[in-house]
Specification:
By secondary structure, this protein is an alpha/beta fold. It contains 7 helices and 13 strands. Strands 1, 2, 3, 4, 6, 7, 8, 9, 10, 11 and 12 form an 11-stranded mixed beta sheet that branches. The chain has a two-stranded antiparallel sheet with strand order 5-13. The radius of gyration is 18 Å and the shape is globular.
């Protein structure tokens, strides 16, 4: 059974200021998602699941349906505020769905095989998709998940601070915890964290999560149980979000193993508008090295 790739694309990109998921960055107008899908296909994935808002549906289908037809199976899943809330009433001033773990849960009815989860607006690199596919095909079980780890230094922006999930691992390379650190920036040979946590400085070779996860399909039942608990505790908080690291942390506490799989692949993304030219340059550099064709889908 081929693994599935789930793409989280329902966010509104508040810091970026527009719907960057469908912005063209490649020479043929390719989105960052196009490159992820291209890498997934050549790594042996059998299906793409887009998690979007219902209002995005026509834009996504117009971009992807024709180019992916006969190349890979495609599903569209909608993350809306009332999905899986079981009668709870969201606060009137809540303006967005419940976060990345809730987005994953919305794919429950269309994913029955081991699957990877990625962000729509991050470029992860072929090596990451190959390593994830190997894990999903050979090692993934109900009590064993994985996270692709990136070097912190490769994930910073020259145009502002970033937030990153800093990974702590044991001697066997398994995840112990992910701590969300905010306002990270480089200062010489150090990375400074302008938040209220310790340490204030991080090593340049620290591993961080860029939200590239590998799951067994049994994860959906685990997430659904946790989401009901989350709603019970947070239903009246208009900005509370149910993130994937929350479920990962609980999974580990209950005895599950999450393998941290390091990748040397380049990562780049678009947190700020000013990042866009660098993303375009990075893609063109990879095309010049013949790692990607100039037009992906011809």
């Amino acid at each position: 059974m081929q693994p599935t790739l789930v793409i989280l694309a329902a966010g509104m990109a508040s810091r970026y200021g527009s719907m960057k998921q469908v912005q063209g960055f490649g020479p043929g107008g390719e989105t960052i998602m196009d490159y992820s899908i291209y890498d997934a296909i050549r790594s042996g994935y059998g299906k793409i699941v887009f998690i979007i808002r219902k209002s995005f549906e026509q834009d996504f289908k117009k971009i992807f349906d024709s180019k992916l037809k006969d190349r890979i199976a495609v599903e569209y899943v909608f993350q809306e505020m009332d999905e899986f809330i079981n009668g709870y009433q969201p606060p009137a001033d809540r303006t967005k769905p419940w976060g990345t773990a809730h987005a994953m849960l919305c794919a429950k009815n269309v994913v029955n095989e081991p699957f990877a989860v990625i962000n729509a607006d991050d470029f992860y690199g072929l090596n990451a998709f190959e390593k994830a596919a190997h894990f999903l095909n050979k090692e993934c079980t109900p009590d064993r998940w994985a996270l692709i780890g990136y070097d912190l230094l490769k994930t910073l922006s020259d145009n502002g601070t970033v937030n990153r999930g800093v990974c702590e691992v044991d001697a066997a390379g398994n995840l112990l915890s992910i701590v969300e650190r905010i306002n990270l920036s480089r200062a010489g040979d150090k990375v400074i964290c302008d938040d209220d946590k310790e340490p204030k400085e991080l090593d340049l070779n620290t591993s961080v999560s860029m939200n590239f996860w590998c799951f067994d399909p049994s994860a959906f039942s685990f997430i659904e149980k946790m989401f009901h608990k989350f709603l019970l505790e947070n239903i009246d908080k208009p900005k509370a979000e149910f993130f994937i690291p929350i479920i990962a942390d609980e999974f580990i506490k209950e005895g599950g193993i999450i393998k941290l799989i390091p990748t040397p692949a380049p990562w780049f993304g678009v947190t700020y508008k000013e990042d866009a030219p660098e993303v375009e340059k990075s893609l063109n550099d990879l095309i010049q090295k013949r790692e990607y064709p100039e037009r992906l889908w011809i």
